[in-house]
UniProtKB/TrEMBL annotation:
This is Copper chaperone CopZ. PROSITE patterns: HMA_1 (PS01047), HMA_2 (PS50846). Keywords: Metal-binding. The keyword Metal-binding applies. Residues 35-100 form the HMA domain. It holds the Pfam family HMA. It comes from the Bacteria.
Length: 102
C-alpha cells in the first residue's frame, strides 16, 4: 500500500551525541555511551511503514532503540557503538524504503 511512494530527496547529516537515547527499561550501565545517529527515510506514509523500518533497524546488533518521526521521515537510532551507515541503509531497504543521502 505504501511502498510505491519511495522517493530520493535528500538531506542527512549524521549526528552523534551521547546519552540522549536512554530508555527507562534499558538503562545502560554507567560509563557506557549511548550513541544517537540521525537519518532521514523517504517513502514512509503511515504507522505500518514506521514500524517496518523500526523493526529492520532494530535487528542491527548494537541498536538499542529506534524512533521514527513519520511526518518528517526523521529516524533516530540509538546504539552502544556507532552504527554503520551501510547496515542502516540495508535495513531500511529491506523494509522497502529509502535512506536519504546527502
Ligand atoms: Cu505505510
Amino acid at each position: 500500500m505504501a511502498a510505491e511512494s519511495t522517493r530520493f530527496d535528500h538531506v542527512t547529516p549524521l549526528g552523534y551525541k551521547r546519552g540522549v537515547c536512554r530508555r527507562a527499561d534499558d538503562e545502560p550501565a554507567e560509563g557506557i555511551d549511548v550513541i544517537e545517529a540521525n537519518y532521514t527515510v523517504t517513502g514512509m506514509t503511515c504507522d505500518h511503514c514506521a514500524r517496518s523500518v523500526t523493526d529492520e533497524i532494530s535487528k542491527i546488533n548494537t541498536v538499542s532503540d529506534v524512533s521514527v518521526n513519520l511526518p518528517t521521515g526523521a529516524v533516530t537510532v540509538c546504539s552502544s557503538e556507532p552504527v554503520n551507515d551501510v547496515d542502516v541503509r540495508a535495513a531500511v531497504e529491506e523494509a522497502g524504503y529509502e535512506l536519504a543521502t546527502k
